[in-house]
Amino acid sequence: MTMVDVVQESPPRWSRRRRIITAIVAIDVFIVLFAAVAAVQFYASVPEPGELRPQHAVVDLREVPMPVLNTFVAAVDPDFYEDPFRPWSGSLITRRYAAAAVAGDDVSSWRVGIMASKLEDRYTRTELLGFYLNNADFGRGTAGLATAAQTRFGKPVAQLSVAEAAVLAVPLAPEADADPRRAWESVLDTMVERGWLSQAERAAQTYPA
Questions:
Q1: SS3 content of the chain, % helix, strand, coil (to 5)
Q2: Superfamily of the domain at 61-204
Q3: Which residues fall within 8 angstroms of residue 118, CB to CB, at 6 or more apart?
Q4: What sign does the dihedral 123-127-131-132 (CA atoms) show?
Q5: What is the DSSP letter of 64?
Q6: What is the distance, to the nearest Å, from the Cα of residue 142 to the centroid of all Cα atoms in its chain?
Q7: pLDDT at 104 over 80
Q8: Please, how many CA atoms are within 13 Å of residue 209, restricted to the half-sphere of its CB?
Q9: CA diameter of the chain
Q10: DSSP of 115-173
């Protein structure tokens, strides 16, 4: 075999290699497209949860001072206001409401995450916070913020102080703290970090008796 023969045989060999590479790329593209279509279909198949209609008293968040509302955001999900729209997860506050609305699904499941993202596409952050707080479990069989405020402090939510609201917010925190007062202080410290409470206001807070 001469050098000319070797050179003449090279093109077919490279041609076969290109065909193999092209086939592999085509398969990869098909898999990606198939996965994308399946993901879109799964997203579309998950229904938006129906609105919970609690039997207990509810509160209109428009009547509640923002610092009081922010205690609950600080305790549960400090990034709630800043979180961008996330089509596959949603914020923790919205996921918790979605999980409660469909009863039985874990808050971390894909299905609940998609439901939460659909809710966030439809409602404002304030509306979602209201849905959650009016249905949240505040411990010891207490459901809803209005009931929790009356049970613990004997007053409507709109009359709660920041210190009192922080006490009610502690049981909602994702990570339980065995020391309620330390957890209460953590909520207030988070509010300071987020700019929702000044250092002077923080220093003036006392733990409710």
A1: 65, 0, 35
A2: Biosynthetic peptidoglycan transglycosylase-like (1.10.3810.10)
A3: 46, 48
A4: positive
A5: S
A6: 22
A7: no
A8: 0
A9: 101
A10: HHHHHHHHS-HHHHHHHHHTT-B-STT-BSHHHHHHHHHSS-GGG--HHHHHHHHGGGS
Q: Which amino acid is at 180?
A: P
What would the two tokens of residue 173 be? Answer: 């925190």
Distance from C-alpha of 192 to C-alpha of 190, rounded to nearest angstrom: 5
Range 192-196, long-range pairs (CB < 8 A, 24+ positions): 193/78, 194/70, 194/74, 194/78, 196/66, 196/67, 196/70, 196/74
- pLDDT tens by residue, 167-186: 999 999 988 778 999 999 99
pLDDT in tens, 106-119: 666 777 888 888 88
Residue 56 burial class via C-beta count within 10 angstroms: exposed 0-12, middle 13-18, buried 19 and up: middle
Tokens at 50, concatenated: 């129906």
User: In this structure, are residues 166 and 75 in contact, taking their beta carbons and an 8 Å threshold?
Assistant: yes
Query: For residue 48, is pLDDT > 70?
Result: no
Query: Can you give the pTM of this predicted structure?
Result: 0.73
Which 3 state secondary structure label does DSSP give 202?
Answer: helix
Confirm if 134 and 144 have CB atoms less than 8 A apart: yes
Q: How many CB atoms lie within 10 A of CB 67?
A: 15
Q: Is the dihedral of CA 34, 39, 42, 43 positive or negative?
A: negative
